[in-house]
């Protein structure tokens, strides 16, 4: 659009210059706007639209809840910026007028949603007004009527998308999705006989958002989150199972809020620039394929555009990319923080079987699992690339596998990335190449390991559990109070003389350190020492660092994710 805008402007100048040469009196004033309508949220916010004119412009509005940054703009291609005030009443609208003179002007309608916050009750066959469980409405109806801050309660059952994504193609059935365009709460897990005041129980009352459409086709994204970030607001999802999406046709995009949502990125969930919190959400059995057009990325969840995603007691499991990179989660210039969550048994025919950060991603995992993932290239478990960072605390990363000789089983760092592994256990991972535990390659990749066990992984005979390509071999890792292969490092970061670790006899089948002469029981850190470590980070790490993966207090010097 910006190039079209510029070209129109150039053509106007050429036409006017040509006209002036023939007759100065034939000069024609021009004024264009990029839009006629802007829909805004109910909360205070700042918005803008583009204008183009070959004359200076005057701006005005007919309502007091719209405040313009300026009332004058110089000729050329400009941005009109304005703020809206909180709306606590019904939906309202106002007009911004941009004019060159009394005869030449353009108007933009600003529509602000209602500040009243309705609550909705929904069932799979609902056709009521949604005011109670006795009169539930349809899910898509509740989504349309909801305003920022609304809560939608979902009765157990299976829901399938019936609405085309905003700006999508109604003739393309796979463009149907559950689009969350506002900062609202969606809570599933209610019984069929629920009464007002009932509490959700997602494990008993499965609430499934299913991208498998009635025609046999699949949604490109079962859920698409497009809500704009607003102060003190977020999208909240709880008690849902999200399944049946198929990310494919990656070369085609749908533009929403200035972001391009690719049809081939994020089969289960696509998050573009939103603030999202998920609790007890399962993203399972989604795909990324070459079924249509260019093969897709990220079968499970794809976050991009500076999205912030928080997961609590969530599962991103059993998703499959049959032809490209990204099996479970992919964060692109975005942030993921997960607590007590699983990223297990995902597959990618390429890189990043479990969790992918690329580029400029920040990933923080507490008390979580990245296990049993598989792929055919770098990073079967966690793959960080191009200035991405991760902090891994109290995590199990086991039994990830790759058939590639490129290296990188549980953790792969590539191209100026970094990872801090704290009180975690990385074992049983298997790759055909080097570094089945941790592998570093390309530019400077920084590795810190504290109070962790990285041992018992299977890799190329010339390699070891923690390894680096020649371009990273000279970059020292920080290894403290940890076991690396058979070697033991003390709190000062030096090798403990005479101490040796044997994963076959010193780790139980449940990955708990065992044995009377086990250095992982002697040279680790207590919870108080780990708390001090956490305080050295900015921001400080969560208090979970003081306990193990199962919230057992660390009173003794035990390494790894689990102490009992």
Automatic annotation (TrEMBL):
Record domain BACON: where: 60-113
Domain of life per record: Bacteria
Pfam families tied to this protein: BACON, Beta_helix
Domain Right handed beta helix: 299-452
Protein name per its UniProtKB record: BACON domain-containing protein
């Amino acid at each position: 659009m910006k190039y079209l805008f510029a070209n129109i402007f150039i053509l106007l100048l050429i036409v006017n210059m040509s006209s002036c040469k023939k007759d100065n009196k034939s000069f024609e004033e021009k004024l264009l706007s990029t839009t006629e309508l802007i829909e805004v949220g109910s909360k205070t916010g700042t918005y803008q639209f583009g204008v183009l004119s070959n004359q200076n412009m005057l701006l005005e509005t007919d309502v007091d809840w719209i405040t313009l940054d300026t009332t004058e703009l110089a000729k050329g291609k400009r941005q009109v910026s304005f703020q809206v005030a909180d709306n606590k009443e019904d939906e309202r609208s106002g007009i911004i007028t941009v004019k060159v003179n009394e005869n030449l002007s353009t108007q933009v309608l600003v529509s602000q949603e209602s500040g009243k916050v309705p609550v909705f009750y929904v069932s799979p066959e609902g056709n009521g007004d949604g005011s109670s469980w006795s009169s539930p409405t349809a899910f898509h109806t509740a989504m349309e009527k909801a305003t920022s801050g609304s809560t939608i309660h979902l009765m157990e059952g299976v829901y399938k998308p019936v609405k085309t994504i905003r700006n999508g193609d109604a003739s393309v059935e796979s463009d149907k999705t559950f689009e969350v365009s506002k900062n609202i709460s969606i809570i599933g897990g209610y019984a069929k006989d629920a009464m007002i005041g009932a509490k959700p129980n997602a494990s008993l009352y499965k609430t499934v958002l299913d991208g498998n459409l009635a025609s046999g086709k699949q949604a490109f994204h079962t859920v698409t989150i497009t809500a704009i970030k607003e102060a003190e607001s977020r999208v909240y999802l709880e008690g849902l199972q999200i399944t049946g999406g198929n990310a494919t046709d990656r070369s085609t995009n749908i533009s929403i809020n200035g972001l391009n949502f690719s049809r081939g990125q994020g089969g289960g969930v696509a998050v573009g620039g939103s603030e999202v919190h998920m609790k007890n959400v399962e993203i399972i059995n989604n795909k990324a394929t070459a079924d249509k057009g260019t093969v897709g990325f990220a079968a499970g969840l794809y976050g991009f555009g500076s999205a912030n995603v928080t997961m609590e007691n969530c599962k991103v499991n059993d998703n499959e990319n049959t032809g490209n990179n990204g099996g479970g989660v992919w964060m692109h210039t975005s942030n993921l923080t997960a607590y007590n969550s699983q990223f297990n048994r995902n597959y990618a025919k390429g890189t990043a079987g479990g969790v992918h950060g690329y580029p400029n991603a920040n990933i923080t995992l507490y008390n979580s699992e990245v296990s049993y993932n598989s792929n055919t290239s770098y990073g079967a478990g966690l793959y960080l690339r191009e200035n991405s960072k991760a902090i891994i605390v109290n995590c199990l990363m086991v039994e990830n596998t790759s058939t590639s000789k490129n290296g990188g089983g549980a953790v792969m760092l590539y191209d100026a990335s970094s990872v801090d592994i704290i009180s975690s256990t990385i074992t049983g991972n298997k790759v055909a190449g080097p570094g089945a535990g941790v592998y570093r390659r390309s530019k400077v990749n920084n590795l810190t390991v504290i109070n962790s066990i990285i041992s018992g992984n299977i890799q190329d005979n010339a390699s070891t559990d923690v390894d680096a390509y020649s371009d990273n071999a000279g970059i020292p890792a920080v290894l403290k109070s940890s076991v690396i292969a058979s070697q033991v490092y003390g709190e000062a970061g030096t090798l403990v003389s005479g101490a040796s670790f044997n994963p076959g006899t010193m780790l139980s089948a449940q990955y708990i350190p065992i044995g009377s002469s086990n250095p992982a029981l002697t040279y680790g850190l207590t919870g108080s020492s780990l708390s001090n470590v956490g305080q050295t980070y900015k921001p400080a790490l969560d208090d979970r660092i003081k306990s193990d993966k199962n919230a057992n207090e660390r009173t003794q010097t035990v390494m790894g994710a689990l102490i009992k």
